């Protein structure tokens, strides 16, 4: 009887162990950066609509000017309080500044923190966003060591770049903070794009070896890159309107499906010290290049995704004139089709909105020249055709 009891117990313990090992990892929580300098109604609406899916806000509270001094950013304390989410203050220090007065910065940060504490908000940390040059990481570690005691127990986090993985000074930096946000978007040459899923996963795995609690920052936005006549980057903008004279511009986008693939893989298996995801940045209805709020929330909540950009023809006011329209029938932002073909039987045609037109032996060919995203349910006119009868369209799957 005793032997049978111990045998049954051993089998039961083994079964419990296997069941625990086969359990999927806990869902990764999501934070979001509020990086807007103006707290307009569209931002407040996005906060209200997404607060249920977000663990905490990371709010841009101040950024350094050209002299290296911190300039506070206006915020809406009432909106933050109403959202019911804790707040991490983020201080952005320009990584391109040649010199920094670290003592002055430390004093300004403690003053800023005192001002925010007076609002009565639930503050859960201070984060420093500093794209520090790898050669200066040792000095950065010293600065963090001096700053931490002044926070009176408030957790200190920093953003980190994959380029720091090559530095011997990185362990000293990590040892001075409570948490790290690893940025895996917009960290390489703009010509290489904003985000690449496989590369991001490699950086995550490498960073996890340091056994430091960290989160990963993922993009929900696009940018416009301007190149001068010499081919050098002259401007990087996300929401600024207008164009620069004498600058060749290129649109960079990150499609939600690409980021969702990384998230799905992390949900199935991720490093034990990966604590969650931080989104840059919270989308609003006014954004020109960010994902739609509805599409972003579907990605955050792990819902089924479908991007379905479909070319359609709409009859114009003139008989025989057809507008070429793109409609996203999916539930998440979709990339624009690279090519749309119409028959050569059409007499005239022209392209619009980032497409060019060529007449090939196969017919009229609309070719995408600028990347872009189409929100769910949205339409975009990309050209027109004059034909005796409604033409048929062909396009490759995206």
TrEMBL record:
**One Pfam entry name:** DUF3142
* InterPro entries xrefs: DUF3142 (IPR021488)
Which protein are we looking at?
DUF3142 domain-containing protein
Q: Which organism is it from?
A: Parachitinimonas caeni
